[in-house]
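re: ur question from yesterday

yeah so i grabbed the chain u mentioned. its 418 aa long if i counted rite. heres the sequnce exactly as i have it in my notes:
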Amino acid sequence: MKSIGFIGLGTMGEPMAANLLRKGYPVTVYNRTPGKEEQLLELGADVASSPLEAAKRVDVILTMISNDQAIEEVYFGSDGILKELKPGTTIIDSSTISPTLARRLAAEVTDRFCDFIDAPVTGSKPAAIEGTLLFMAGGDKQTIEDHHDILLTMGRAVIYMGEHGSGATAKLAHNTIVGINAAGLIEGMAIAAKSGIDVSSFLRVVQSGGAASKQADLKGQKIIDHDFSVQFSLALMLKDLRLSSVLTDSLGVSTPMLEAAKSLFQLGQSAGYGESDLAALAHIYENWIGKRIGDPVTPAKVEKKGTERRKKTRLPLDIPLMMSIYQWEGDGGFSGQSVNGSLRDLSEDGIQIESEFPLEKDMFIVIHFLQKSDIPPVTGRIIRIERNNGTFKYGCMLTALPLYQRLQLQEYIASQTK
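ran it thru and got these structure tokens back, copy pasting raw so excuse formatting
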């Protein structure tokens, strides 16, 4: 039975190493942060003082590291694996890293007369504990087949993806879908919650219909319960989406849904939820809808006949701005001018601008806030016009406003109303 060195004992690595020990493999472990190996010691693991020491003592090295920078340290550092790698060693990396780095590792390992497999996994912490991970493997096909017994100790299947780097590429493509699915699930649940639908009942509909997904099964109840204990962290999800964005840029693939999901998870990271489960993205939507997604449904009050509906609460403002107005000329050109205005109201529906300059409905304008706001120009469309003592109040719908810019605008307005 081959001896194994396991490097990286985080959310996934610790239960994976535990499964190898339970099947009788001699395992030497190393983790950059001390204290993660206590349970594994009880199962019979040995502990190495560095990646280099672990590599010297074993036949097969498995690495499960959080990001490219940490991989660089573990492999190329002063006490890294590649410092003194004995010929004939096989290295299996199950981290989610860039395909470029995976191919670089393969080249470095091959130059030392050793074998390399990039074999990231699908399945979060529960699958790692149960030993039901799926490995997507890139590298020499025979080498991968020779190590099926080790991989299947931790997982239920090994799928060959192709040459070195193919496993890493498949993982990024897969996690792109995961991120989009998770964001879509949370968005749908937010719609249901805001509409007064019981979200537990709605989740049953999702799981039984065309929207059914692994994310709905894994995250749906966690969102309702506000249980954001980590199965797969929001920070790691964002890291994978960023890697996928770099990959797709290099491939020339347009990925609007990837970019939208990445922006959402960036908001979650900025709000301080990076170390929580990726389902904590729900916090962002809850902030937007003004309630917890899992709150019990309360019966709506019936309005008495003749009672006027209450308008949405609006926040009165007086924030100076400029508007650029462009008009089409008959000769095929544009003419434009800038006029003064003030931001008067902010609501869920948009913004209201007051100005002495007459505009027309459905006209597009470019809104410029003061330079100190650091807010780039915002495009809006006039959808309502009210006359008021010689001035005009324009209801304006903002168009194509990125999520980060919406948050930036909210923060700026809040700072001006203190």
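noticed a couple things. The mean pLDDT is 89. also Residues 170-289 form a domain with the N-(1-d-carboxylethyl)-l-norvaline Dehydrogenase; domain 2 fold (CATH 1.10.1040.10).
anyway ttyl
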